[in-house]
Amino acid sequence: MMTKRYRIQFPPEQEHALAQSEAYFFVMEEGERVKLRFHDYGEIYSRPGLYEQLFYDRLKCTSPRKVTELLERSVASELEGCSELRVMDLGAGNGMMAERLRGIGVARIVGADIIDEAQDAAFRDRPFVYDDYLVSDFTKLTSNEKLDLADWNFNCLTSVAALGFGDIPPSAFFEGLRLVAKDGWVAFNIKETFLDRSDKTGFSRFIRELIFSEYLNVYQLERYTHRYSMEGVGLKYYALVGRISAPIPDDFLESRGIE
């Protein structure tokens, strides 16, 4: 299928110092420049192929491939393969991570995101990668949504390029973790600074507490280049794969003062 190509323009160099969550670009549409932030996911997903062209073609994002490779390697050390995995893909977007997961033989994948445009883009661009897709705020899941999700008996949670910028707050990621059975797998990526003790944000503290807790056995932790910035500087992230070693207590966040 032919994908539309967009004319993308980056702002002047003096604007490149913006925080990662505030970075923006322009896309030319009918002779006019439309300004979009990198995190304007609804606007980006509504334009077929723009997400891939921006983040994967121009900025060389490698995270779905990297996290999938580490998950496959970790699972292979314990099981024959990934065909028994039942994955909740949190912050699923338009399905790029799920496409990779299908490539390593994952049997069941349910996507979840907070915006309708993500679901629409996934069904439009990759209609066969998800068995189901939930659009919901994981900080406010209803009782029926929790029951429906529990019925999938997830033994793996993935979340790629979605954690730590307010897109998925600690309480939402925690709800995702609670859906994973004991001995289930967790695979995600985070910006390298989130593992630095100088970072006092709730998400950073949550991840550090989780990594060093008795509830998660870490199998893989690898620093790598997530993608490049507009000026060509590599943005360093960590990819992590672990296994749930014990049920995470309901008060895990509260007892550590994490909001």
CATH class of the largest domain: Alpha Beta
Q: In total, how many domains does the architecture comprise?
A: 2
At CATH level 2, the architecture of the largest domain is 3-Layer(aba) Sandwich
Number of strands: 10
The percent range for strand residues is: 15-25%
Number of DSSP helical runs: 9
Give me the Rg, rounded: 18 Å
Overall pLDDT metric: 91
- Specify the biggest β-sheet: 7 strands, mixed
Shape: globular
What is the name of the CATH superfamily of the largest domain? Answer: Vaccinia Virus protein VP39
Q: How widely separated are the two ends?
A: 44 Å
Secondary-structure blueprint of this entry?
Blueprint: E1 8-9, E2 24-29, E3 32-37, H1 41-45, H2 50-58, H3 63-76, E4 86-90, H4 96-103, E5 108-113, H5 116-125, E6 132-135, H6 143-150, E7 156-159, H7 170-178, E8 185-191, H8 202-211, E9 216-228, E10 234-244, H9 252-255
Parallel strand pairs: 4-5, 4-7, 5-6, 7-8
Antiparallel strand pairs: 1-2, 2-3, 8-10, 9-10
Describe the structure.
The chain has 259 residues and is α/β, with parallel strands linked by helices. It has 2 domains: 8-58, no CATH class; 63-255, Vaccinia Virus protein VP39 (Rossmann fold, 3-Layer(aba) Sandwich), CATH 3.40.50. Helices cover 30% and strands 25% of the residues. The chain has 9 helices and 10 strands. A 7-stranded mixed beta sheet has the order 6-5-4-7-8-10-9, sandwiched between helices. Strands 1-2-3 form a 3-stranded antiparallel beta sheet.
Which key terms come to mind for this protein?
alpha/beta, Rossmann fold, about 30% helix, three-stranded antiparallel β-sheet, 2 domains, about 260 residues
